[in-house]
Specification:
heterodimer, A: 113 residues, mainly beta, 6-stranded mixed sheet, 5-stranded antiparallel sheet, B: 114 residues, 7-stranded mixed sheet, 4-stranded antiparallel sheet, 0% helix, 57% strand
């Protein structure tokens, strides 16, 4: 079957760097997304990876290794407002035409002062 | 104005009642989705639609129905609400068919069935 694994919870300190890992087991691959979701709010798009390597966007970077079925989201210079859940999602390879995403359960990040 | 809107934002209803959640978008996207989110269970797809004539079941469609009234409107109905349908419901849209298109989410509807 198709599966995504992420740690349930992480804590970090304001100003520090944190890495949130995501591993996926799917029968094929056509792209991986990271979303941020604050408590009670809608998920918002952070990044998309389809080729191996690092994509950088300001304080946030996302890495992909397709051979290892592995991605991570790197958050630098942590701020209190980064306390949120981070969701990893991959394209469902069994759904044609890029129809659907398979979602991880999310990693709840708490940033402490 | 928000690109994806949902009404109502909060709703409390009784077991057995019919309820409709509505979603509208101004992004001009063809693809629309309904998800529910429960603590510990993540986002689960209920239904999705790629145009007015295309409706597809997701992983948890039992007890739900949808209507795509126009490109911009996608409604979710609970024909006879039950307490385990208490959840946070999100509508989302995306462009397509390219794989890189992300989904844009509405603000959510918090539904409580008593």
């Amino acid at each position: 079957g198709q599966n995504i694994d992420q740690p349930t919870e992480m804590t970090a300190t304001e100003g520090a760097i944190v890495q949130i890992n995501c591993t996926y087991q799917t029968s094929g691959f056509n792209g991986l997304f990271w979303y941020q979701q604050h408590a009670g709010e809608a998920p918002t798009f952070l990044s998309y990876n389809v080729l191996d390597g690092l994509e950088e966007k300001g304080r946030f970077s996302s890495f992909l290794s397709r051979s290892k079925g592995y991605s991570y989201l790197l958050l630098k210079e942590l701020q209190m407002k980064d306390s949120a859940s981070y969701l990893c999602a991959v394209r469902d390879p069994n759904a044609g035409n890029n129809r659907k995403l398979i979602w991880g359960l999310g990693t709840s990040l708490a940033v402490n002062p | 104005d928000a690109d994806v809107t949902q009404t109502p934002r909060n709703r409390i209803t009784k077991t057995g009642k019919r309820i409709m959640l509505e979603c509208s978008q101004t992004k001009g996207h063809d693809r629309m989705y309904w998800y529910r989110q429960d603590p510990g269970l993540g986002l689960r797809l209920i239904y999705y639609s790629f145009d007015v004539k295309d409706i597809n079941k997701g992983e948890i469609s039992d007890g739900y129905s949808v209507s795509r009234q126009a490109q911009a409107k996608f409604s979710l109905s609970l024909e006879s609400a039950i307490p385990n349908q208490t959840a946070l419901y999100f509508c989302a849209t995306s462009d397509g068919p390219g794989a890189a298109y992300e989904q844009y989410f509405g603000p959510g509807t918090r539904l409580t069935v008593t």
